[in-house]
Amino acid sequence: MIEVENLTFSYQKQKQTLHGLTFSVADGEIFGFLGPNGSGKSTTQKILTGILQGYGGNVRLFGKALGSQQKNFREKIGVLFEFPYLYTNLSALDNLHYFASFYPADSRRDINELLELLEFKKDFLKKPVSFCSKGMRQRVSMARALLNNPQLLFLDEPTSGLDPQGAVLFRGIIEEERKKGTTVFLTTHNMMDADLLCDRVAFIADGEIKAIDTPKKLKEENSNHQVEINYVYQGKHGTAVIEMPELKAGIPFPYDEIISIHSKEPTLEDMFIQYTGRGLT
Fold first, then answer.
1. What fold is seen in the domain 27-41+71-219?
2. What pLDDT sits at residue 184?
3. CA 192: distance to chain centroid?
4. For the chain, which residues make up each domain, given as ranges?
5. Fewer CB within 10 Å: N-end or C-end of the chain?
6. Rg of the Cα atoms in the chain
7. Could you give the CA distance from residue 77 to residue 184 in angstroms, rounded to a whole number?
8. Which DSSP string corresponds to 246-277?
9. What phi and psi, each to the nearest 5 degrees, are found at residue 205?
10. What is the DSSP letter of 110?
11. pLDDT band for position 95 (cuts 50, 70, 90)
């Protein structure tokens, strides 16, 4: 679906933003592009969606070079930007009816059904978007991205501005899109979203890709193979960290009750810091 080879880009002469990125995204895959602000995530997405030109290297989408894409290229993609691009003096309905007019009638999804799926508050349907909270605007932006039943969906910080319930809702919708066969390119610095959603992730920092693999493999390959056991013995709570092979012979200390056992595998954020030498902020 996406093939990128030696991608470079500069906003200013002699100050390169992207330093030879190479990666691919398979059909139907949720691919996470993870990094802190200023790492090159959004720049890469803008190139892939045709917003930024003047890049170096080779980019292919749908099996064709990006520069040779036909006029219907944008009919096959959906884009959720990090900051909502909406007409704030128009209502949610008016915004979506306007954007829907760009697509063929037979490819459009029902606007009211989309807003209901996204749990948009009905009281705000006909009010200007400027009256909506950031979370409600994000719902309208997601509806806009899904309007045309895209084959390729670009999501930039999709759960930004959402409360925990809204974040769970969005993750469920993204999973449903993947089940339909939609390919998802997810740019984020939210490691929970990446860990729960992505088939593979790429770590990007300072315009360079530092690692690409599945979240599971990245964590397993760097695991210290320890478990943490919380227990009670003679009325007192205790915690012990032991090597996993020790469990084969049983728990090697006295206890009256085991409260919990947790593996000590690193988090995806731990892995990002290990590979890039920096945090996500």
1. Rossmann fold (3.40.50)
2. 97
3. 9
4. 27-41+71-219, 224-264
5. C
6. 22
7. 10
8. GGGG--SS--SEEEEEEE-PPPHHHHHHHHHS
9. -150, 135
10. P
11. very high
